[in-house]
Design brief:
Bound molecules: nicotinamide-adenine-dinucleotide
Strand order of the largest sheet: 3-2-1-4-5-6-11
Low-confidence stretches: 129-133, 271-277, 326-336
Mean pLDDT: 86
Order of helices and strands: EHEHEHEHHEHEEHEEEHEEHEHHH
Helix content: 40-55%
Radius of gyration: 19 Å
Number of helices: 12
CATH class of the largest domain: Alpha Beta
Shape: globular
Distance between the termini: 49 Å
Number of strands: 13
């Protein structure tokens, strides 16, 4: 199979690239390197040493007009669309920037796919919603410009399915965590708590310590992308991807502390109404239609993630790594 992955240098995208190459596929990756890192693609680039042209990285913005030519030249059987600006606070501060990347960028991906004659697009959708529990029969209500833009992407893919016969599968991902996740991003609770515990810093969260969240280990999330790619073309729509093992914020910190053999301390501050307090989703549809099931339990996933974090986090930092909080959103909300 020839696969094209947008957002290939990012956390989930690079893990997907590695899995596709391990499965014997040829991969073209596209990334504008705004948040991605070439370090994430070391293994992928090494694949070219044994067989030429297994992996090609194109440094390009998905909004660029040249995207059409890149898609046509790559002639892929499938497109995995993961490129997105993922900073929630920044989307509140500058919704136009977020929409250009995540809405106009996705439209450009739809257009390029149509013109290249590629029907199957697997899209990394957002699992955030106001409703708990969230299953496929509940409507969704985005709580930030970022969530609205990601949802708009789903709707555009649906429109292109109706108009041009594209066959999109949208994977509404819960909190994905694991190695390569951005240490300085705001979305990764496990990464933020893990690096704080390793460097002996207290964690400040905005929201309730009892808020329930759903997690999915990155390898399991990637497996969902692969299964979606293998599904018969008549299967389309949105599928919730989550572990089925919800945990509270306090439980996650407790698990991380026990893995590191060092207690973490939690400061709980007040919540902003625009923050997503709980994500709990029903993934029955994904089990039944895609045959997808999570394989890595939260404790096991935390073990694996902490193993990686110990190689990248300075235990006695001269700077303070980012903790998991929504202060920027909080301040933006207060100001508006
Ligand atoms: N991580 C999660 O918990 C989670 C949850 C739900 C959905 N998602 C979605 O999964 C996808 C991947 O997320 P991630 O956590 O790996 O984030 P990430 O920031 O590590 O990866 C995103 C990649 O897209 C690239 N990118 C951003 N804008 C681009 C543009 N305009 N053109 C080309 N490349 C661009 C970045 O450089 C980065 O490499 C995103 O679409 C995100 O919305 C992630």
């Amino acid at each position: 199979m020839r696969a094209l992955v947008t957002g290939a240098a990012g956390f989930i995208g690079s893990t997907l690239v590695d899995r596709l190459l391990a499965d014997g596929h040829q991969v073209v990756g596209i990334d504008n390197m705004s948040a991605g890192s070439a370090d994430n693609l070391q293994e992928a680039l090494a694949a070219n040493e044994t067989r030429k042209h297994r992996f090609t990285l194109v440094n390009l913005d998905i909004q660029a007009p040249e995207l059409v030519d890149v898609f046509a030249g790559a002639n892929p059987d499938i497109i995995f669309h993961l490129a997105a600006h993922v900073d929630l606070s920044a989307s509140v501060a500058d919704p136009n920037f977020d929409a250009r990347n995540n809405v106009l960028g996705t439209i450009n991906v739809c257009e390029a796919s149509r013109l290249a004659g590629v029907r199957r697009i697997v899209y990394a959708a957002s699992g955030s919603s106001r409703y708990v529990p969230t299953d496929e029969s509940h409507s969704v209500a985005p709580v930030s410009p970022h969530a609205a833009a990601k949802l708009a992407g789903e709707f555009y893919l649906g429109a292109y399915a109706g108009l041009y016969g594209l066959a999109p599968i949208c994977l509404a991902l819960a909190n994905v965590y694991g190695p390569r996740q951005n240490l300085h991003g705001e979305a990764g609770m496990v990464i933020a708590f893990g690096s704080a515990v390793i460097s002996g810093r207290p964690v400040t969260i905005y929201g309730e310590a009892t808020a329930v969240h759903e997690f999915v280990y990155v390898d399991d999330a990637v497996d969902a992308f692969v299964r979606a790619a293998e599904a018969p073309m008549q299967i389309t729509g949105t599928y919730r991807i989550r572990s089925g093992r919800p945990a509270t914020v306090a439980q996650v910190l407790q698990m991380i502390s026990s893995v590191h053999d060092h207690p973490g301390s939690l400061n709980v501050a007040s919540a902003c109404t625009n923050d997503v307090q709980s994500i709990a989703m029903d993934a029955t549809h994904a089990y039944e239609t895609l045959g997808w099931q999570p394989g890595v339990g939260l404790m096991d996933g935390i073990h694996r993630t902490m193993q990686w974090l110990r190689t990248v986090v300075d235990p006695a930092p001269t700077f303070l790594p980012v903790s998991w909080d929504s202060r920027a959103i909080q301040e933006t909300c207060r100001a508006s």
